[in-house]
Amino acid sequence: MAELSTLARPYAKAAFEYADSANALAEWSTQLATAAAVAQADTIKKVLASPSLTSEQQAQIFIDVCGDALTVKAQNFIKVLAENKRLSLLAEIYALYEAFRANREKTVDVDIATAFELDADLQDQLAKALTSKLEREVRVQANIDKSLIGGVIIRAADVVIDASIRGRLAKLGEAMKA
């Protein structure tokens, strides 16, 4: 996985820097999301793996599938990726681009797993607390995890806060073994 990230990073950074200078971060985000989804399609994976097609042909097929979703600049980006045999990295490029964008916009996506549904007021309270703790604008995505007995597990980028009963019981079990 680290190797894919290493290969994708220069392309993601180039796309981000261009989009940032053109004040088109959201537009490029949408285009890269579309391109990443197309790159994950089984038929496109077969096209990209075909040794009988040139990189120009692969790029043109890819652009044709994307249709009007890509601007001329994004199409040129796809052509560069095709020339360098990197179209298969589009999902990783998109993920890195989104990380660069979130860092620039000082936002973070937070996933909250609970044993029960959170009401909107409690979600807002958690979002405010996390905003001050993480010093970023927080976008909350709440999920119900039936395997939790109670409590919550909060995931924000590389930060995990396990305040679940299951997590506490696991910690207690580890302490008793030590």
Averaging pLDDT over every residue, what do you get? Answer: 88
Shape: elongated
* Helical percentage: 55-70%
**What order do the SSEs take from the amino end to the carboxyl end, as H and E?**
HHHHHHEHEEEH
Uncertain regions spanning at least 5 consecutive residues: none
Spatial strand sequence of the major β-sheet: 2-1-3-4
Structural class by SSE content: alpha+beta
Number of strands: 4
GO molecular function: proton-transporting ATP synthase activity, rotational mechanism
Family: Belongs to the ATPase delta chain family.
Protein name: ATP synthase subunit delta
InterPro entries: ATP_synth_OSCP/delta_N_sf (IPR026015), ATPase_OSCP/dsu (IPR000711)
Summarize the structure.
The protein has 178 residues and is an alpha+beta fold. The chain is built from 8 helices and 4 strands.
Question: What does this entry look like structurally?
Answer:
- The protein is elongated and about 60 Å long.
- The mean pLDDT is about 90.
- The chain has helices at about 1-20, 25-40, 40-50, 55-65, 70-85, 90-105, 120-135, 165-175, and strands at about 105-115, 135-145, 150-155, 160-165.
- It has a 4-stranded mixed beta sheet.
- The chain folds into 2 domains: about 1-100, N-terminal domain of the delta subunit of the F1F0-ATP synthase (Peroxidase, domain 1); about 105-175, Glutaredoxin (3-Layer(aba) Sandwich), CATH 3.40.30.
- Helix 1 (about 1-20) packs antiparallel against helix 2 (about 25-40), helix 1 packs across helix 6 and helix 4 packs antiparallel against helix 5 (about 70-85).
- It has about 180 residues and is of the alpha+beta class.
